[in-house]
Each structure stands twice: as C-alpha cells, then as structure tokens.
Specification:
By secondary structure, the protein is of the alpha+beta class. It has eleven helices and five strands, in the order H-H-H-H-E-E-H-E-H-H-H-H-H-E-E-H.
Length: 244
C-alpha cells in the first residue's frame, strides 16, 4: 500500500510541476485530485507527520550535541560546582532543584549510582527554578561549610516531601552544621553569580526544566532513569566523550 501511495504521490507531484503557469481552473482541479487522494489514503498524512517529527527530533538532538560540545568545560569542570567522586572516569551532570517532584523521584537512583559506582564522577548543577526557597537551598548547598556534606544534604532535602525553611535548617543541623552561619555564608555574591551562570548555561543548552542529566554527548531531560542508566553503561563501555 505504501509503495502504491508513494507512486501515486509522485505522479501527483509531476502533475503539479506541469501546472506551472496554467490557469487557475487547472490549479483547482489539481487541488481537488490531491484532496480526493488524501481523503482516500489518510495514512499518507500520518506517515508524513511521523517523518516530520523524526526530522525535528534529529535536529534537536544534533543541536543539543553541538551545544554540549561547545560548553563541555562549563558543564564538567567548573571548580565552583559540587562534585562527588572527583576522580571518577565517567562524568554525569545533573541540573536540579530541591523542590522539584521529578528530581525527588530520581534522587534515590542518583544516590545509589554514586555510592555503587566510584568510577562515576557526579557533577551537581544547582538550578533553582521553584522560587525563593529553592534559591535559598541552592545557595546554602554551595557554601564552603555545606559542600563537604553535599551528598548527605541532597539526600535529606530530596527526601522532604515539602521542603521549607524549618526542614532546611533541621537537616543542616543533622549534618553537623550551624544553620545561622551557613545562611550567612550563602549571601556571598560569588554564589549568586554561580547560580546565574548555571541558568545561562541551561538556557544555552535549551534546558528549561528539572531534572536534566548529561552523560557524554547525551542530554536526558526529565527523570528518565532507564535512559540515564543506558547512557552511563555506554560511557563505561568506552562510548564516553568528556574532558580528561
């Protein structure tokens, strides 16, 4: 059926070319033939839509790959970022927000990956998008006091169903930190600049939501854990593109 459809469309296309410069009555007749054909074979429209979608997805993937390559250093080697397993051979980057429901869904898997795979070098990109409390948590996490406790705080804050100031301070104290001192340190303008830089990087990569993971040249939007695991496995098997 599809071969016949293709042949019919080719014949119609030839007819269209032959109509160049013809009378409007001929144009109308051709339009009627095309309309009649498409009404008789609506699957052609679906096939064309699928092809268009595939082309758009391929173009988006190519643009993402180009952007990742362009900003590789900012993604993987920003000395201001929180990095777990810094000597790992496979780098995974996560853009996240502590109040994002999908980030919370992915968090246990992230923690398990880090703990079970010392060869995974995990870069946390603080990307607060859910308001003032998200901004506060991100800034607090980036303080010199909190960075050594980064994974513990990540796990604690992600486990809170509705993170608020009280819970934020409770988890800081549980990590052995003085909440008042840490909040004061979070006012450092350098931390604000770092978050602004991360937002600019996300914009350049067309990342507008959380979580978003990057492994090599692969951008994985959302909490697509099977895709994340597959990308990591490919990288561990030698398919990694990263900075040395």
């Amino acid at each position: 059926m599809r071969l016949a459809s293709a042949a019919a469309l080719a014949a119609l296309a030839c007819s269209a070319l032959s109509l160049a410069g013809c009378q409007k009555s001929d144009d109308a007749a051709f339009g009627q033939r095309v309309h009649a054909y498409l009404m008789a074979h609506p699957e052609v429209i679906e096939e064309a839509a699928q092809k268009l979608q595939a082309n758009q997805q391929a173009a988006a993937a190519k643009a993402a790959t180009d952007a990742i390559q362009k900003y590789r250093n900012e993604l993987e080697r920003d000395p201001s970022d929180i990095v777990i397993n810094p000597n790992g051979k496979v780098t995974v980057v996560e853009f996240f927000d502590y109040r994002c429901a999908y980030c919370k869904l992915a968090a246990p898997e992230v923690v398990k990956l880090i703990k079970d795979n010392p060869d995974i070098r995990f870069v946390f990109k603080e990307f607060p998008i859910f308001g003032d409390l998200s901004d506060t948590a991100a800034k607090v996490a980036l303080t010199p006091q909190a960075k050594p406790k980064a994974l513990q705080l990540y796990q604690s804050w992600m486990a809170e169903k509705a993170l608020d100031d009280t819970l934020l301070d409770k988890d800081l104290a549980a990590a052995g930190l003085n909440p008042a001192e840490v909040r004061k340190a979070a006012d450092d303008p350098a931390i604000e600049r770092q978050i602004l830089d991360t937002r600019a990087l996300a914009s350049a990569l067309k990342i507008d939501g959380t979580p978003a993971f990057i492994v090599g040249d692969t951008l994985i939007p959302g909490a697509d854990l099977p895709a994340l695991r597959a990308a990591i496995a490919a990288a561990q098997n030698g398919g990694l593109k990263t900075l040395g």
